[in-house]
Design goal:
This protein is of the alpha+beta class and 316 residues long. It has a single domain, classed as Nucleoside Triphosphate Pyrophosphohydrolase (Alpha-Beta Complex), CATH 3.90.79. Helix 5 packs across helix 6.
Length: 316
C-alpha cells in the first residue's frame, strides 16, 4: 500500500526497458536511455560496473576557493543580490554555504577519482542555476551562450560546480522504495519528484573524512539524518556513478541505500527524528513494481530519476 497515493496527472509515458539488468548495460547505453526518456542527465563515469563503495573512490583536495571569471564578477554579485531579494518575497529558503567544487573527474586504477576545491552556494545559485538567464544588458545572450560549456569537461569549466549527492532508498525487508516531492520552500527542485536523500557536499558542515578530504559518503549520512531522521553507516551506501544534470550542469553522484527497516518503522522514525522535514512536501513508499508509474511522470529531478531507475534495474 502506498504511504501517499500519487495525485498528479501523468503527462507523458516513457518506454522503459526493465528486462535488462544494470550489470548488462554500459554508460553509453544508459545515457541513451536517459536521452530517449527526456531526462536531462548524463553519466560521465564509470563506463561499466556501476558499484562504487568507499574503497572504489579516490579524492584529491585543493584548499582554494573558486572565483568567477573576471568578466562575470559584477554579474555574479548582482544576481546574488537579486536572488536574496527574491527569496524574501517568495518565501523559499536560500543560505550560503562552503561546498566542495568538482575541478575534474575520471577513472584511475579502476577507481573513481574526483578532484575538489571549494565554492559557495550563492555562486552556484547565481551561475549554475542561472545558465539560461540573459546576461545583464544583453537580452539575447544567456550565460550558457556566453560560456559555451562542454558538459563532459569539468577541468575547463568556468562554473562553480558544487558536487550534488542523490541516493534512492530501498526498505529491504518489504522491497519498497521511498520517493518524495520537494516542498516549494526549496530553491532546488521545488515541487519536483525526487529521491529522499539529496544535497550538496558541504565543507562547512563537515563532510570530510579523517584525512581532511571531502567525503561524499559523509554527505549522504548527514543528509539522511537531517531529512529523514535515520542513522546510516557509510558502508550502507553504494554509488552508481558520477554524472551531470544538464539544465544547470551541476555535477552529481547518484546511488542507493538499502535499509533493514519496514515501511511502518521508517515512517515512525522520520516522524519523530527528522530535522529538515520542511524540505519534503509529500512522501510515498512504493513497491518496485509500481515504480514505473512514478517514472512515467515528467516532473522529476533528473539525477533522482536516474538513481531511481538504476535501482529498479539493479535488482531486476
Amino acid at each position: 500500500m502506498l504511504y501517499l497515493k500519487l495525485q498528479m496527472s501523468i503527462c507523458c509515458y516513457y518506454m522503459l526497458d526493465t528486462k535488462k539488468k544494470l550489470s548488462e548495460l554500459d554508460r553509453n547505453e544508459l545515457n541513451k536511455i536517459f536521452n530517449e526518456n527526456d531526462v536531462p542527465f548524463i553519466l560521465i563515469a564509470p563506463d561499466r560496473e556501476f558499484r562504487i563503495t568507499q574503497q572504489g573512490l579516490t579524492v584529491e583536495y585543493n584548499n582554494c576557493e573558486y572565483t568567477p571569471p573576471q568578466s562575470l564578477i559584477d554579474e555574479t554579485r548582482i544576481r546574488i543580490e537579486n536572488l536574496i531579494d527574491r527569496s524574501k518575497r517568495e518565501g523559499f529558503t536560500l543560505f550560503d554555504d562552503i561546498l566542495g567544487r568538482v575541478d575534474d573527474v575520471g577513472m584511475q586504477a579502476n577507481k573513481l577519482l574526483i578532484r575538489f576545491s571549494k565554492t559557495r552556494y550563492f555562486q552556484f545559485a547565481a551561475l549554475n542555476k542561472g545558465l539560461d538567464l540573459p546576461l545583464l544588458g544583453m537580452s539575447r545572450v544567456t550565460l550558457r551562450d556566453f560560456l559555451n560549456e562542454v558538459p563532459y569537461d569539468l577541468r575547463s569549466s568556468m562554473l562553480p560546480n558544487p558536487l550534488g549527492i542523490v541516493t534512492s532508498l530501498i526498505l529491504e525487508p518489504e522491497k519498497k522504495v521511498v520517493l518524495t516531492i520537494h516542498s516549494n520552500r526549496n530553491f532546488e527542485g521545488s515541487g519536483m519528484m525526487a529521491a529522499p536523500i539529496g544535497g550538496s557536499l558541504s565543507i562547512k558542515a563537515g563532510d570530510i573524512n579523517i584525512l581532511g578530504l571531502p567525503d561524499p559518503f559523509s554527505t549522504v549520512a548527514r543528509e539522511a539524518n537531517e531529512e529523514l531522521g535515520i542513522n546510516i553507516s557509510t558502508s550502507d551506501i553504494k554509488f552508481f556513478g558520477f554524472g551531470r544534470e544538464l539544465a544547470t550542469l551541476k555535477p552529481e553522484l547518484i546511488g542507493e541505500i538499502h535499509l533493514n527497516l519496514k515501511e511502518e518503522e521508517f515512517i515512525q522514525i522520520r516522524k519523530n527524528r527528522a530535522k529538515d522535514e520542511w524540505e519534503i512536501e509529500r512522501q510515498f513508499i512504493a513497491d518496485r513494481e509500481e515504480i514505473l508509474n512514478f517514472l512515467s511522470t515528467n516532473n522529476w529531478s533528473p539525477p533522482a530519476w536516474a538513481a531511481t531507475y538504476l535501482s529498479v534495474i539493479d535488482v531486476n
